[in-house]
Amino acid sequence: MGMGLPLEDDDDDDDDDVSSDRRSFLQKASTGSAATIMSAAVFLNNPYLASASASAVGEDNAPIILATFARRRVGALPASLTSLPPNKLGIFQRLGEAFLYSNDATRTAGKDIFASFDFPADWLQLDRFLGGIQYVDQRNGDKLYVLKVPLPSGIETLKEVPKAYFGDTIFNPNGELVKNGNDIEEYKVLSSSMLETAEDSPPRRRLKVRYTTITGNNFSVERKGLVDIYEVGGMCYMLMTGSNAVRFDKKGVERDVVEYIADSFRVTKLPSVV
Q: pTM for this structure?
């Protein structure tokens, strides 16, 4: 499985300049000791991953922060799948489902959420039995995922989170995205912006990302996409979807579908009594 490497960022607020031996260093870190992993995080100049990794070899044995698939909440609120009227981009369906704040299948009053999004009706759902959400267009490999990651320690709002944090936690080689068959060679968070929401809605942020995947035939495919993020109770719920980078940059129907899916993403906090 390939090792995901963050590409250099051209924004002034993220210092991603590293030496030419970065790939070999991180490949050792991906299979090395906790102390080596901690050093890799320092090498990446990511204080959030470094701090989490350092505590993994300390007294409390805290894990590295990784993005996980948002786990579906089974029970009181069944999932809904609604067929939508055809539009210029094709035929879409709307999935609505409750998701857990926790990772251990327990409910958390006031922090579990309900999320919905639209997606092409002919996309195939993958690994639903594992409890997460991911869909694929079998014709070209375009995918969407629903992920989550907590706010980093010491940060209280979605706006304050450095955009590199999301890239590093999503594409980490030990994270669920990679371990579930998405072989990532390199990645970069290209841009970030806060989006306007209604007064009673959680804060929302959007990232544009570029990442290179390795196919089963060992070909590198560059992809670009969007990550739409809502923060509820200190947890960031993310929908990520993208397409081939060339098609994305052409701003044709593939780019329109990516934006349509991201625009449709909605997250609301479930009432404590549900």
A: 0.78
pLDDT value, residue 31: 45
CA distance 192 to 28: 31
Rounded percentage of the chain residues whose pLDDT exceeds 70: 73
Closest by Cα among 52, 49, 48 to 60 = 52
CA distances to 41, 55, 189, 248 from 36, in Å: 9, 13, 25, 37
Q: Which of 71, 108, 75 is nearest to 270 (CA)?
A: 108
pLDDT digits (tens, 9 = 90+) for 127-143: 776 778 999 999 988 99
Quick one: which of 215, 6, 238, 44 has its CA closest to 134?
A: 238
Please give the DSSP secondary-structure letter assigned to residue 15.
-
Pairing between β-strand 113-120 and β-strand 5-6 as defined by DSSP bridges: unpaired
**Positions of the chain with pLDDT under 50:** 1-3, 8-59
